[in-house]
Amino acid sequence: MQRDTTKKFYVVHSWLGVVTGILLFVLAYSGAFSVFGARELKVWANTDIRAGVSHDYAAIEALVRGHAAEVDGDYLGHVRVMLPGESSFTHLQIAFEKEIELENGQHDHRVLVFQHHPQTLVLEDRFEGGLLEWFNRQPKDMADFMTTFHTDLHLGNPVGLILTGLLGLTLFASIVTGVIIHRKIFKEFFSFRPLRSLRLLFTDTHKVLGVWGLLFHGVIGFTGAFLGLVLVLLVPAAAFVSFSGDQDKLIETFLPEIEPAIVGEPAEPQFARILTDFRTANPDLLVVDANIHGWGDKGAVMALTVLGGDTLAANETYEFNAVTGELNKQYSTFGKLDSATGVILDAMYPLHFGNFGGLFVKIIWSILGIGTALLCVTGMMIWIERRAYGTEGSLSQAAYHRISRFTAGSCMGLVVASLCLFHAQLLLSVAPAQFGFWLGVVFFGSWVAICVYAMLRHNTYRTIKELFVVSGVLAIGVSIVNAVVTGDAIPLALANAKTISAGVDSVLLACGLFCLWTAKKLPAERPATNSLAATAKDTLQDRMDSQTEAAS
Q1: What mean pLDDT do residues 43-71 have?
Q2: CA distance 476 to 456
Q3: Span 301-309, mean pLDDT?
Q4: Exposed e or buried b for every residue in 335-351, given b needs 16+ CB within 10 A?
Q5: Residue 133's CB: how many other CB atoms inside 10 A?
Q6: Looking at the DSSP assignment, which residues form a beta bridge with residue 116?
Q7: Strand order in the sheet with 286-293
Q8: Is the peptide bond before 158 cis (omega within 30 degrees of 0)?
Q9: Least confident among 83-92, 268-277, 364-373
Q10: Residue 520: pLDDT over 50
Q11: What is the CA radius of gyration of the chain?
Q12: pLDDT at 150 over 80
């Protein structure tokens, strides 16, 4: 009975990997990039903030007060100052927001936004309209493109989020079933036999990656499923059950907006003084934005959104009296729930993207993310090898070869496409509003081209070898193109305090050299000794491994 149950889990594990293997690779690989999307890649992609931004709070306060004097009073209920630098903002943006009630009883948010250059503070743009419209018209760079691709595969809400959420569940289910069918999995920490046979190379690599990254794979799968499905499925369901379908009421209940205690006494908010004192007291924290609620009143509240605290939450909020500067309260996004639920919800995003513990954690998360991607690829290759050259397959060998070529083209094509994004960021010369579109053309165009190339080739091993060379050349070329286009060659970038730019170029240079070295080591043909009929010893070993995986 136990053997039959284990065999069923083996079948489930195999088909989960076959059906979703390539998509899981796509999510895992893009996730390894997205770990650095909110800061490092954002800074690299925008030359105006590469050297950092020294905020002149007094000058910014003067701009805020000047704009506040020229807008209608309805817009002064919520004033948001988005600070440029090592966050998601590339410009100084001062937004004035008001809420209007529509004819159907719903509410809409209108914004009036002034955009200034991050260094000179010169006014560059002005926008008035809906909040969602303003968000959608923001220029997208390659960091935004890759992060969004990981989030919803550029399919949008709800289709993309549901798909990535379900893939997270699939990854989590694959980890659970993998542990069940490999009951002795923890004895295989160092079981790696690369010289025995091709199948054993794939099998051992798959097991070692699965064992060493077991906790990480499980966390990523669970948090990915939560982040992908909660807003699309769980929030509407909870609203239907408890709030008669009113999602806005649900969100207001669990994430209430800041309500200042308006006293009716006029007073000017002390924006510059509060920010200066806060940065002096907390030099290691990064202030993303400042929100002033109740502008012009003595009871106004100034809330700072801060990154880099000693908690696992994605960010923290510090609420001050906007006039006196007195700290009223400090909390995380879901900290107002004041329960274990709030702590868990706060941890979901940082655990998934590694946004806690600084750069070191991000590097570990990225490496483990690449390990998850390789776990998916090796699982696919094991399935193909056993059917193309073994006795388990029901299709022709040519059919499995086509699957193998498609797998190689899809996976290596994503690697090439992601590297093309760096070159596109530097070389594209189009209007900012069209930049995201042309990034998509470059990304998906190069990906499809590589897939077609791989499908037309009849030797998958030679194709992979060639694509590693292409990837290596592209990765090394980023630092060269960057030096020519922006003048930020690695030594000059370091000398000019552009450490993030130099760091990104250096990592890509190292990755490019690694790809070229790997291409040199990879075989151009399938090793003949890997045939099941090559030796009786390898045949017996392969069969024993298959039986062990199927029935432990």
Answers
A1: 94
A2: 27
A3: 88
A4: bebeeeebbebbbbbbb
A5: 12
A6: 92, 123
A7: 123-130, 107-116, 92-101, 78-82, 286-293, 301-307, 316-321, 327-332
A8: yes
A9: 83-92
A10: yes
A11: 27
A12: yes
